[in-house]
UniProtKB/TrEMBL annotation:
Designated name of the protein: Beta-lactamase-related domain-containing protein
This protein's UniProt keywords: Signal
Signal peptide location: 1-17
Residue intervals of the Beta-lactamase-related domain: 45-371
PANTHER family in the record: BETA-LACTAMASE-RELATED (PTHR43319), BETA-LACTAMASE-RELATED DOMAIN-CONTAINING PROTEIN (PTHR43319:SF3)
Pfam family name, one: Beta-lactamase
Amino acid sequence: MISSIRLLPVWFLVVQCYNVTDYNIHGSITNGWEFVLDLFRENFVQEKELGAAISVYHNGRSVVDLRGGWYDESKTKPYDDNSLQLVFSTTKGIVAAAAALCVQQGLLDYSELVTKYWPEYGQNGKENTTVADILSHRAALPYVDSPIDQYANWTAMIHTLEQEKPLWIPGTTHGYHAVTYGWLAGELVRRVDRKKRSFGQFIKDEIVNPLQIEFYIGLPSEIQYRVSPVVPHPDVKNMLNQTMKDLFQIWNDPRIHQAEIPAAIGLSNAKSIARIYASLIGNLEEGIGHQLLSEEMMKLATKSNTPLNEIDLVLQYYSSFAMGFHRYDRVLPKFGPGVFGHHGAGGSIGFAAPSKNLTFAYVLNRIGTDTATIIDPRIESILARIAVHINDQT
């Protein structure tokens, strides 16, 4: 039950929920988008969520910004607008935006050899790897044997990748680079950055600060307390083997959060991610920041570099990558052509539908167990209704 509804000007409806029976859901909704609240709340009613947040931008304006549930399994603290969430590979979309900024500034060229910017990379069969190969998961370095503890050491990981032999001829096919993608793409950005910043600092200076958002690759230790821990669904918790239990401990380890692991360890919230994508496809009506990438640059950055029907060697199913962005044309056809973004393990996602001038983000702390679908089942019904709503308006 909604405890209070406060009407602002006719185009804006703010919904505020305060009591426990409403699952702590609070935030804002523009008139006409109330159905998102109903569907979001249903995820808590059915105990699919512990804590989560959802954000939608349309025509450069925030139309949905909701969060609800609990910060952790103790259920003593609400999941609120101060909560930060590990979003796993959703981070890759932000890395792609950083690389595109460098291309737009003339510092990088997708078609150039990596060795033009990073000479040490040209070893052991990697000499002809292009920037596009790295960004579209065609670099043939999908795995790394380094121990997890070494992931926090950027220099060590870069040296390891320089020495690695590719698993196939780079550029000939693609295979998902789950963790290595971040260091490979991130090092390219670092190599061409005139200010010689760390990758996390580059993200902060070039994307986060101009948009007045929060997205951390390398979390400051003083705000670690705000990070909502990821947890498995209760239905499968007792079925996890020790390896899976250890993974949850690693994912919640402050040392991992504070390291720069750009492929998988980004910490943010739904509104920040949706705002980033909104800034990629247009100006924000809120007057915060400006369009980060030109229309011409976006076409280049989001054009698929995956041949039609090419099967991912690692994931063993069809996937399509542009310059770091996932292409969702087959997955989300009702949102029009050119849908791009990235999703992460457990259910988080951020994407833009340029033809609809819409962006969407969802983050959560209860890790999903359905790995057979790209779009988490918890948001399928929400996206289906949003697609109908948007298409009815056009």
